[in-house]
Amino acid sequence: MRLWRRIVVGCVMAIGILAGGMALGFQDLGRETDPLCASIEEDPCFSDGVFEIFCAKDYLRFAGYMNRARKENPVDEEAVAVDGRLMADVNLETEERYALENHPYIRLAILSYSGTFDGNGHQITWVSEAGNGMFVCLERDGVVRDLVFEAPSLIWDMDEYGVGMLCMVNYGKIENCETRGRVEGTACYVGGLAGVNRGFIVDCVNRAEVVVDSLGDYGAGGIAGLSKCKVLEGESEEEPIVPEIRGCVNYGSIRGTWEAGGVCAYNDCANIYECGNEGEVSVRYQKGYIYPEEPEWYERAMAAGICGRMGRNNLEYCYNKGRISILEEGVEDTYAIAGGTLFWTHTVEGCVSLKGTAKGAMRHESVAELTEDELKLWLTDHRSVSDRGNNWEFDLEEAREKLPLIPLGVTESRLTAGRGEAFLCEEFCLRSEKGYAIKRVSPYALCIEKDGDWDSSLQVWVMRAPGGLTDIEAYLDEHGNFVKDTGHQVWLGIEGAHWLHPGQSYKDDVHVKTVICEQSGQPETWLVHYRDDMLARAAVGDAYGMIDNVVALPLQYSDVSGYEAEWLLLFTNQGDNYRPSLYEVDEFLKNFTWLPCRRRVEQGDCLYKFATEYTGDGNRYPELAAVNGLENQELLIPGQMLRIPEEWLALE
Q1: Nearest 5 degrees, angle CA 318-CA 322-CA 326?
Q2: 373: Cβ–Cβ under 8 A, 6 or more apart, which residues?
Q3: Are 256 and 284 in contact (CB under 8 A)?
Q4: CA 466 – CA 643 distance, rounded (Å)
Q5: CA angle (599 as vertex; 596, 605 as ends), nearest 5
Q6: DSSP string of 304-355?
Q7: Interaxial angle between packed helices 607-615 and 621-628, expressed in degrees from 0 to 180 and rounded to the nearest 10
Q8: I want to staple 360 with a disulfide (CB 3.0 to 4.6 A). Which of 82, 238, 334, 556 is the partner?
């Protein structure tokens, strides 16, 4: 039937040519003939409101009609709303076609389209070294569906728009399409299907290599480079059309300079639902210089399985199986699903990644890392496997690379050696809460974690702060007080501290706390760092708690050196990246005692009372008197500071 129709169409066209070109509207333009009819309705391929395409020349005439209509009727969407249907595979690389350079309208790309282009399950093979894809702009009412599109080499090298195989900008709907080959752009967003998506892309697959190979504020995405809403003339500012990418999968290799994602490089004011990435995603540099002429303006690298950089939007039930990497050596982040998830209000829910695919710095995401078998189950039934985030676990060797740490430089006292509930050294005494044990796991760290069958995933890591901070006096306010602003400066002074913290650090993340030490009874100053803002809470939702660690630095003061911060305590949950209970943190802080431990004498205190309190035996008060050189053991003055023997602090 198709062959018979093809013969009929060929005969009709031949008759038109023999008739002197009357039916085809030939014009004298200095070339053989104009293959476009005076109107598309006169073309032999136009039938019942649909332009049927059997070969390369049919496609090029269809493009010519659309481009002429846009030129002649630039504000009339109906003029470019003609439906097209692909009736056979079309190979523009090998089939006979018109000389494109000789015609003002017949071009590979359709400039603007508002109709429905039905691929009908067939494939279009593009010309090698083409400048752009099939459509420049797919308008709001435009639809492209059921099409396989292959471009061996599509290259856009202008600082404008975006570039994708099917369209540069999509305002309409692309559904059930597949792209293959390679697309590369310079100074623009690049996507496997759309350079910029402002509409809907549904149930599509990209198998093409997608490359951005220049500096600037743009990136590469498997489905779309940029997905972001835009309100057109006549549309509601209050209720804009929110772009959406749903049910799409990327299998292609995606490479950007600093920003890349398996589905899109940047997703803002747009949604991504039930999408997946199985291709490799990489960026070249640790930093993206978005204004190359201004080297101090840069963004951190953003490479992720689904969305390189997130804005205000929703991302739900997506998965990643591809390897995510930054090619340049350094400490910046890679993400299993999405980067920048704590910067704006949005939802990231039910997303999973194949374990070990994202490598780099701490990945603060609400993402579950699954084994191959678990991921297969999840793809069959999302509810069959827990999607509780678990995609980060503290690693001491990585900590040494990122901070870097210095050795503890202390020797444990024989008084606590072999015991788990206390650690006594020449600088401090640390006691654990019930059910926890203190272990020296490395020359660089102590680790406090559950002992035996105690049900807890909390870990407390005690490390020597890199280089120490001895210039804290410079950070005090005008009244000599330690406040959030100055605390934030101390935090920023710790080399590599951003690795311990999700996203960018703000002064409100610093909490200056006064903690009453359990053993000395004295107030001690702590610098405690954790996210505590509305955006962070909204980002992870109430169901999961906060994605964060808690970092605490004890501040020690002396008349000789002023304030010093030599120790760093990291509170984290083993096996995931959720914030530990702040109550648990406070309980541990009060059990850190600087040495020598000094106790302030209050009205009514006596040595017998102190001996009873610390040892359970009041008759041991002469030991306290001897340590403090007290000749008159009965005379204590309120405000007097007594040194507590280290042996007493180490008692079980």
Answers
A1: 115
A2: none
A3: yes
A4: 30
A5: 150
A6: ESSEEEE-SSEEES-EE-S-EEESS-SS--EESSBS-TTSSS-EEESEEEET
A7: 110
A8: 334
Gap between the Cα atoms of 273 and 430, Å rounded: 48
Instruction: Output the six-digit token pair for 551.
Output: 């970092």
Locate tokens 């835009």: which residue?
230
Contacts for 230-239: CB closer than 8 Å, 24+ residues apart:
230/171, 230/198, 232/140, 232/171
Pair 610, 617: CB distance under 8 Å: no
* DSSP state, residue 5: H
Nearest to 471 by CA among 561, 370, 594: 561
- Phi and psi torsions of 410, nearest 5°: -130, 155
Tokens 């210095």 — which residue?
406
The mean per-residue pLDDT over the stretch 280-299 comes to: 87
Tens digits of residue pLDDT in 120-148 = 999 999 999 998 899 999 999 999 999 99
Give the span between the Cα atoms of 553 and 254, in whole angstroms: 41
- Give the gyration radius of the chain's Cα atoms: 34
Q: What is the dihedral of CA 560, 564, 566, 572, to 10 degrees?
A: 160
CA distance 618 to 612: 4
Say if residues 6 and 14 touch (Cβ distance below 8 Å).
no
Q: What is the pLDDT of residues 60-88, one digit of tens each?
A: 999 999 999 999 998 888 999 999 999 99
CB of 109 within 8 A of CB of 143? Answer: no
pLDDT tens digits, residue range 522-562?
Answer: 999 999 998 776 656 655 555 556 778 899 999 988 888 88
* Residue whose tokens read 């759309």: 194
Question: What's the distance, CA 474 to chain centroid?
Answer: 35
Measured CA to CA in angstroms, residue 169 lies from 86, 128, 263, 338 at distances of: 22, 21, 16, 23
Residue that the structure tokens 């410079």 belong to? 474
**527 vs 565: CA distance, rounded Å:** 9
